[in-house]
Specification:
Elements lengths: L5 H18 L9 H17 L4 H10 L2 H6 L2 H6 L7 H26 L10 H30 L4 H31 L4 H42 L6 H15 L4 H13 L9 H4 L7 H7 L2 H9 L8 H7 L20 H16 L10 H11 L6 H14 L28
Helix pairs in contact: 1-6, 1-7, 2-3, 3-6, 3-8, 6-7, 7-8, 8-9, 10-11, 10-16, 10-18, 11-15, 14-15, 15-16, 16-17
Length: 429
């Protein structure tokens, strides 16, 4: 919504008018305002802590009349961080969206049951109206998100819906269960104080989850900064690192490795050439062949790279891949001339991914080879340069998924740089 198109602004206005309609019939004499205020304060605090604090909204939908339940979301939505510009429009949109969604859920719950259905004695009877209300909540939220994505970001509606609804159904169902627990305890003899206890373990888990995602984002930012620095220094690697990361991930998945190792091998592929930061730029961009001395300097880049990343603990075995991805099974590689099983598995994966992308990428000095030809070349070198198991895994992954690297930084570099020897399997650089 940075530069919001006029249709998107009109859409937000329509949803805001719908939200006003949802609350205009508020029965002032029948509303427990203390409950509305308490739930609104809880939602506002939870929204600032973790975002999308839906259990409180759904508890309100189970406990309050629709118009009153819809008001629970308003203070939190208006006070939460906007996440971008225009901030006022984003806050209005979020508040209006949640008012409509909570109102729909409360209406569905009220039509299929009644608010006393959440009394502990009637707990089994609460499941049908609660389940329908949660589903209505998810449907309404996904529909409104689909509309704004289609108008503000020009995402095709079918694609926006396909991404929104299936992904949000399971988390919102869990939030609905927590909201039901809150509502049941709220109506029990223990009262609202007991209902608040439901939120404590959820707040702790959401905080831990948020911490994990912040740490993961920091990892990604570290890797992105390193790769961008390499791309600036050596234009021929532009997009290469990300593609090698993707090919390494495909090999790892085909090998049946655990999810965490797959991610680490993706990091290994992305960072395999980070040591080029320690190589003089004039050598990386030199036109014409390298002298033996210059080649020896460039062949130090795996060791430079290992020095740069060895203190980054989350990389795990990716650090060994950075150091050994130019080793060869027959011992003819560098920097240490390791052979066979002496070469770490992660390095053997990245070596195949690196050579594959080198052959299938177009550069100013060479045209890309077809995938089938690149695979034949890898198979020819399997057993001498490359681990046959990794070559077979890459072939299997490509046969199943094809090769469609989702990389944008893939334009050819300026023609000032000279050819790089490691673009051909077995060539030493």
């Amino acid at each position: 919504m940075e530069a919001t198109p006029a249709p998107a602004r009109g859409y937000v206005l329509c949803v805001a008018l719908g939200a006003l309609y949802c609350v205009h019939t508020l029965p002032a004499d029948a509303v427990p305002w203390w409950a509305v205020a308490l739930l609104a304060a809880l939602y506002a605090g939870g929204e600032r802590l973790s975002g999308s604090f839906y259990p409180v909204l759904l508890a309100g939908a189970f406990l309050l009349p629709p118009s009153a339940a819809a008001l629970v979301a308003v203070p939190g939505a208006l006070l939460a961080p906007a996440g971008g510009r225009p901030r006022l429009l984003r806050r209005v949109w979020r508040a209006a969206q949640l008012v409509v969604v909570v109102w729909v859920a409360a209406r569905v719950h009220g039509e299929l049951g009644e608010h006393d259905a959440v009394v502990a004695a009637d707990f089994p009877h609460a499941l049908l109206p609660v389940g329908a209300a949660v589903l209505a909540f998810c449907l309404a939220l996904s529909l409104l998100d689909t509309g704004i994505l289609a108008l503000a970001e020009r995402v095709p509606p079918w694609r926006a819906w396909r991404e929104q609804f299936p992904r949000s159904l399971a988390p919102i169902a869990v939030h609905g269960l927590a909201g039901l627990m809150m509502a049941v305890l709220w109506r029990s003899p223990y009262g609202p104080v007991a209902a608040l206890l439901v939120l404590l373990p959820m707040c702790v888990s959401w905080w831990a989850f948020a911490q994990y995602h912040r740490e993961r984002a920091a990892h990604q930012a570290t890797i992105r900064a390193l790769v961008q620095a390499v791309d600036i220094k050596d234009g021929y690697t532009r997009g290469h690192s990300e593609r090698v990361g993707q090919a390494s991930m495909m090999i790892a998945r085909e090998l049946g490795l655990a999810g965490e190792r797959v991610e680490v091998l993706r990091f290994a592929g992305i960072l395999h050439d980070v040591g080029k930061l320690g190589v003089p730029t004039r050598l990386l961009r030199k036109n014409g062949p390298l002298t033996p001395e210059e080649r020896r300097v460039i062949e130090l880049h795996p060791e430079y790279g290992h020095e740069m990343v060895r203190g980054i603990s989350f990389l795990g075995e990716a650090r060994a891949a950075v150091l050994h991805h130019h080793e060869r099974l027959d011992g003819s590689g560098y920097p240490y001339g390791l052979s066979g099983s002496q070469i770490p598995e992660s390095a053997r994966v990245v070596a195949v991914a690196d050579a594959f992308d080198a052959m299938t990428s177009t550069r100013s000095y060479s045209r890309a080879r077809p995938v089938s030809e690149a695979l034949r070349e890898l198979e020819k070198c399997a057993g001498s340069h490359f681990d046959p198991r990794m070559v077979t895994a890459l072939a299997g992954a490509l046969d199943q998924h094809g090769w469609h690297p989702a990389v944008t930084a893939d334009e050819p570099a300026p023609p000032t740089a000279g050819p790089s020897a490691d673009r051909v399997p077995g060539a030493r650089r």
